[in-house]
Structure formats: structure tokens, C-alpha cells
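If it is no trouble, can you show me the amino acids of a protein and the C-alpha cells describing how it folds?
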Amino acid sequence: MQRGFSKIVRRILVGLAFGAVVLVSFSLYANLSDLKASIAKFNYMLLPVLFALTLGNYFFRFTKWHYYLRVIGVKLSIPDSMAVFFSGLVMVITPAKMGELLKAYLVKRIDGSQISKTAPVVVAERLTDFWALVILSLAGIFQYAVKKAWAVIIVVVVLLVLFWILVSWRGLMFWFVGKFERSKFELLRKVGTKLKVAYDSAYQLVRFGPTLWATILSLFAWLFECIGLYLVIRALGLNVPVSGAIFIYAFSTITGAISMLPGGLGMTEVSMSALLKNLTNLAKADSVAATLIIRAVTLWFAVLLGAAVLVLNSKRFAPAVAELEAETS
């Protein structure tokens, strides 16, 4: 095994173990025999369509990733950019998705770009995902009038707006970075230099034009997976309005993301199954079955696809993986 990959394998195994705990817990919650009966109703002929929708999500998110790299002046070839993006998918089950910073290390390995320059791209990706998911949540939030959902949406929007104001306030950010650059301690001066590079990239990414275009791409990306949930429900012989499925998937993804749990594991499933059961009157077993199926063809498919791409590029990417592991140990 290439140097550094053993730790990534362990992280994946921890995520898989956590996922197994979620699966067992939900099976017990739904009653295993009832859950089996619900899953038995699923029309497996729909699986190719579901995987195609998930790949559509990845296509638009990759387009956003590649676009963001161009915004900050990093010009990878499309094959290299795809190898980096898809390799990063394996890290979605790390806490707060911080493992996705692997992409910055992989870019450095390919063209030498500073990690502090490309790391803000990963943050900008997640922030525009949040914007898109908030917008999609509005598709059903008026219909269902969930008070707690409104509170979460308002908090997320306020935090996003505050972040954009903060990053856009160049005077304040230059003053903050300057404090580090002028420090009498060499370590803090080095940190200041990296912060300046990171801020230059972040400022380019949060401008109105890039943010608008990236959010539009994210809207299409996440809409594909929302439609996937709708089709899963229909494939189980059940009926939920499209707007309801979009709201439930988008809002559950938001709650999973802000939980900071690996891949949103546990929180996303709890939120999604509870909303399906309480807002659309699905039986407990049916709501859990729909949740587990859509998570299998989205989250776990992403992990498997990312692992496959990373393994295919293991010789080239092993030094970057080792560097990431060394710096985060």
C-alpha cells in the first residue's frame, strides 16, 4: 500500500463502521421485518436512473470546481482536474468534510500551486452548496410551514451573509492579516503569508459573478439528487409531491452538514426519515427505506467512486496523501 494511504483506509473504515451503526439503528427503529417488506417493494429497474442523477450532481459540482480553479488562476487540464475532484469524494465521510482539503494537496502535487491558494476553493464549494440547498428548501417550506425548519434556514442564511460581508471587507481582512505579517515571531509571520495568499483567493471567489454562477451550478447539482429522492419514493409505490421531496432532501442535507458529523451520517438520516414520516404521512418503515436507499445511491456511491479514482491514481497522488496525513496527524 502506498505511503499515507493506510491512514485514509482507516478513516474510510471508521466511516463505514459509523454507517453500519446508523443502518442497524434504523433497522431496529423501523422494525427489521417491516423494513424488509418496504424495501421489497422497491423497483430496482430504477437504479440506473438514480445513479445517472447522482452522476449529474457530480458533473455540475465538478464544473463548479473547475470553474473556481480558473477564477484563482489555476489551470489544470480537465482530466487532471477530474482526477482531483473525484478523488476528493472519498473524503466526504470525514468530520465536517475537512478531508476534502485533500484536493488542495493533490492540485499542489500536479502543478505546484500553494495549498493556501487552492484551499479556499473547497470552502467556497461548500458555501455555494449551502446557498443552493437553502433555495431548494424554499420549494416546500411554505407548503409545510415547519417552524423549526424556518429557524435553521434563517440562521444558515445569516451566517452565510455575515461570512460574505467579512470576506468582502478588504480593509478589515488586510488589517487582520497584517497583524500576523508584522509579528516578531517567525512562525506567525509565516502564517500571515499563507493567510494573505488564502485571502486573495477567497476574495476572488466571493465576488458577485463567481458566487452567482457557482450557486446556479449547485442548484442544478442538488436538484438532481432531490429528484432522486422523489423517484425512490415513487419506486416504493408511495406518493409525495415533488416540492415536498425537494424540501425534505435539501433541508435534511443542510442539517446533516451543520451537524459536523462525517458525511452528515445519522443526522441526515434522522431528519429525512422524520420529515418523510411526519409531513407526508409515510409509514415508519417506508420513510426509513426511502432514506436508506437514497443515501446508498448518493453518499456511499460517492465514497466508492472517490476511492476507485484515488486508487487508480495512487502512484501519482501518494506523496500528496502522505503530506496531508502528516500535517493533520
